[in-house]
Amino acid sequence: MSGIYSGPSYQSGYPVFAGGRRQVGGGIFGALRRMVLPTLKKYGVPFMKRVGNRALDFGANVAADALQGENIGESMKLRAQQSAIDALDDLTKTRRTVRKKRRKSRQVGSGRVTKQRRRRSKKPTRAARSKSRRRVKARKRKRNSTATGNKSKRRKTTYL
C-alpha cells in the first residue's frame, strides 16, 4: 500500500464524482409545474378547504334529515340549493386575501454604523448649499483684499 487514494476498484481514472449519464426531468411539464403549483398553493388550497367544509356540512345535514325520517332525495336537493346559496353569499360578502408572511429580520445590532454612514452621506439642502457658497465667496474676497494690502480700488481725488 502506497497510501494514495485511488478510489474503488471499479472506478477508472481520478476519483471524481461524475453524476448520472443523463439528467431527467424539466421540459415543458416541469416549467408548467413551476408556474402552476405556487398559484395552486396560494389560491387553490384555501378554496378547497372551504369547499370541503361545505361538503361536510352538506353531508351532516342530509344525515340528520335521514335520521328524522325525511326523504333522502328531497333532502339532498334542498341541502344542495342551500349550500350553493351559502357559498355565493360567502363569495359576495367576504373576499379572503392571503397575507404575506413578514420576513424576520436577521439584524443583530442597533445599526449604529449604518445610521452614521447615512448621516454623513446626506446631501445638504439647496438653502444650505447656497449659504455655504456665499461663505466661500466672502472668504475669497477677504483673502484677495488682504493680499493686495487693503488698497482701495477707488482713486483718491485731490483738490487744490
What does this structure look like?
The N and C termini lie far apart (123 Å). This protein has a domain at 27-93. The mean pLDDT is 77. The protein has 160 residues and is mainly α. Helix 1 (27-67) packs across helix 2. The longest helix is centred in the first third of the chain and has 41 residues, at 27-67. It is elongated. It has helices spanning 27-67, 72-93, 112-121, 126-147. It has four helices and no strands. 59% of the residues lie in helices and 0% in strands.
Largest sheet: none
Average of the residue pLDDT scores? 77
Q: How large is the count of helical segments?
A: 4
Overall helicity? 55-70%
Instruction: Look at the helices and sheets and give the structural class.
Output: mainly alpha
How would you spell out the order of helices and strands? HHHH
Low-confidence stretches: none
Strand composition percent:
under 5%
- End-to-end gap: 123 Å
- Radius of gyration, whole Å: 42 Å
Secondary structure: number of strands: 0
Gross morphology: elongated
How are the secondary structure elements laid out?
Layout: H1 27-67, H2 72-93, H3 112-121, H4 126-147
Helix pairs in contact: 1-2
Summarize the structure.
The protein is mainly α and 160 residues long. The chain has four helices and no strands.
Which features characterize this protein?
about 160 residues; mainly alpha
